[in-house]
Amino acid sequence: MIYKLNETHDVRLRSWVESANAAGTDFPIQNLPYGVFRRRGSIEDFRIGVAIGAQILDLRKAYAAGAFDSADELTLSAIEAARSSTLNDLMALGSDAWQALRLAISRLLRDTSAAQVTLRQALLPQDEAEYALPAQIGDYTDFYTSIHHATAVGKLFRPDAPLLPNYKWVPIGYHGRVSSIGVSGQQVRRPLGQLKAPDQSEPVLAPSARLDFELEVGILIGSGNALGEPVTINQAESKVFGLCLLNDWSARDIQAWEYQPLGPFLSKNFATTISPWIVTLEALTPFRAPMERPDSDPAPLAYLDSPSVRRSGGFDIELEVLIETARMREAGTAAERLSRSNFRHSYWSVSQLVTHHTASGCNLRGGDLLGSGTQSGPEASEAGSLLELSAGGRKPVTLANGEQRSFIEDGDAIVLRAWAHKAGFARIGFGEAGGTIVPPAAVHVES
To answer: Strand pairing partners for 419?
Structure first.
């Protein structure tokens, strides 16, 4: 692993941004995630910022104010790259530059910093900001790393053999659609596609009636590899800039008809929503977890295995899904939790996903996005999709106000949240990845 505990993780650190010291904040000074923002409703350029408490530190303004004038050469190269409108230039510099900039920002934001008077003008309240995708995403691959999700879904279709024989040997993935990835707050139009009920002789073009969410973690690649040069398991995390939340919206009825023999297509390509803040792997250092498998399971092939992965290749990150229906919104009631899980339940680690993706010689590039796949846990309450929570639609979920959901209805908002906490360290969070379903386009067929 490339990161070790250092002064930026010290639980005693306090910030002159008072909201960063509040109990329960997602963004204490020990976090410092990156995002791309501008003042809401303005025509300003989007720019890179760091979340600190309820504020955003505008790195372009901080640089202009001279906050980095005395920085070393490596930090200067990083802050100059961070004056861009996406994270791609910064991510291309590699992990040494990422660490140098994070340390410099941490020192500038501490309550002992002499720069606080200067930097107050570089803050913007988060509730006055709007966000763009944090990076220019070139490619998107979605994996299937939760054995609990794979087993639960498999039981719906193959009760006698729910888990396919390759699952415990190879990280399964498919190539997704980049153009429909959006940032939290996305309005998702219910997709149209071919549907075929078991008692119908022919499919029809219609809106999906079995629209679902998928609770996932997004993995943002920072620096890539050359074509034909695989990334080894011990190099893999040096290629990862950070993690975010990801909702891979899924139309289950479209998926059921189209997925054989080549997998998802229209059932997945209409929308994917990510959170605006990228939490760096360095910030997550205190929350590493072992990658554990039952003794009866096969060990990963050698290219996917290492002592460090077994010891601390996972992440102990709490994950949560909430729903806010149109009726709840009108009544002013809070969103209701549907599920809570944890990223440590992954069967495959972040480094294993990167390594396997490049094993063929595939060249990952800075800004590429990997999805973890639905993160379900071993308990029924830890299911990461409505497909599981409602047993394929046969057992609707009853909400506190009496409404029931087998799948998502128009007007429903789905919100993903995540945080990591451990005794002796500051709690850090990911913010939110939220999206609202709006009615489908009209079905129009040329005569």
So the answer is: 318, 429
Q: Which of 350, 369, 353 is nearest to 288 (CA)?
A: 350
Domain ranges (residues) in the chain: 16-132, 140-438
263-295 pLDDT tens trace: 899 999 999 999 999 999 999 999 999 998 999
Domain spanning 16-132, CATH architecture: Roll (2.30)
Point out which residues pair with 341 in neighbouring strands: 319
DSSP symbol at 86:
S
CA distances from 377 to 148, 215, 337, 410 (A): 6, 11, 15, 27
- The domain made up of 140-438 has a fold known as Fumarylacetoacetate hydrolase; domain 2 (3.90.850)
List, in sequence order, every residue forming a beta bridge with 48; answer none if it has no partner. Answer: 36
| Active-site choice (9, 148, 149, 357) | 149
Q: Is the pLDDT of residue 30 over 70?
A: yes
pLDDT of residue 157: 76
236 DSSP 8-state letter? G
9 is catalytic: no
Q: What is the pLDDT of residues 38-86, one digit of tens each?
A: 999 999 999 999 999 999 999 999 999 999 999 999 999 999 999 999 9
Angstrom distance (rounded) from CA 216 to CA 145: 10
Residue 295: what residue type?
Answer: D
**Segment 106-114 mean pLDDT:** 97
Neighbouring-strand partners of residue 129? 39
Which runs of E-coded beta strand occur in 110-214?
123-125, 129-132, 140-143, 173-175, 181-183, 186-189, 192-195, 204-207, 211-212
